[in-house]
């Protein structure tokens, strides 16, 4: 199992991440609000500004204070290794 550090020692299983989105668009804000209303929101920002919204295959939505680009860079090498292994 490969883990993704999303800040403050919080880790996610890389295989569960479907998308890393910028929180600035209205559709992403709507998704975040719906996840909060349904109890599917995980806030890993520790009170800081949300800079990335991660969507998981379980339907959970995870908020991170790290930039979307930073998390994409952390995901990219892992995805390349997965492609070589399969």
Task: Tell me what you see in this structure.
- This protein has 86 residues and is α+β, with helices and mostly antiparallel strands.
- It has one domain (3-85).
- The protein has 2 helices and 6 strands.
- The strands form 2 sheets. The protein has a 4-stranded mixed sheet, sandwiched between helices.
- It is globular.
The side-by-side strand order for the widest beta sheet comes to 3-5-6-4
Q: Oligomeric form of this entry? A: single chain
Approximately how much helix is present in the residues? 25-40%
Radius of gyration: 13 Å
Span from first to last CA? 15 Å
Average per-residue pLDDT, rounded, comes to 91
User: Care to count the β-strands?
Assistant: 6
| Basic shape | globular
Question: How many separate domains?
Answer: 1
> What structural class do you assign from the helix and strand content?
alpha+beta
Number of helices: 2
Q: β content, as a range?
A: 25-35%
Low-confidence stretches: none
Summarize the structure.
35% of the residues lie in helices and 30% in strands. It has 86 residues and is of the alpha+beta class.
List the SSEs and their pairings.
Layout (H helix, E strand, L loop, with lengths): L2 E5 L2 E4 L3 E5 L4 H12 L3 E3 L8 E5 L4 E4 L3 H18 L1
Parallel strand pairs: 4-6
Antiparallel strand pairs: 1-2, 3-5, 5-6
């Amino acid at each position: 199992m490969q883990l993704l550090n999303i800040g403050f020692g919080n880790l996610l299983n890389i295989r569960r991440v479907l998308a890393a989105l910028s929180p600035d668009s209205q559709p992403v804000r709507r998704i975040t609000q719906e996840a909060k209303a349904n109890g599917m929101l995980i806030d890993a920002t520790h009170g800081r500004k949300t800079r990335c919204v991660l969507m998981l295959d379980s339907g959970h939505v995870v908020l991170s204070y790290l930039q979307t680009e930073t998390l994409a860079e952390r995901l990219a090498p892992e995805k390349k290794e997965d492609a070589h292994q399969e």
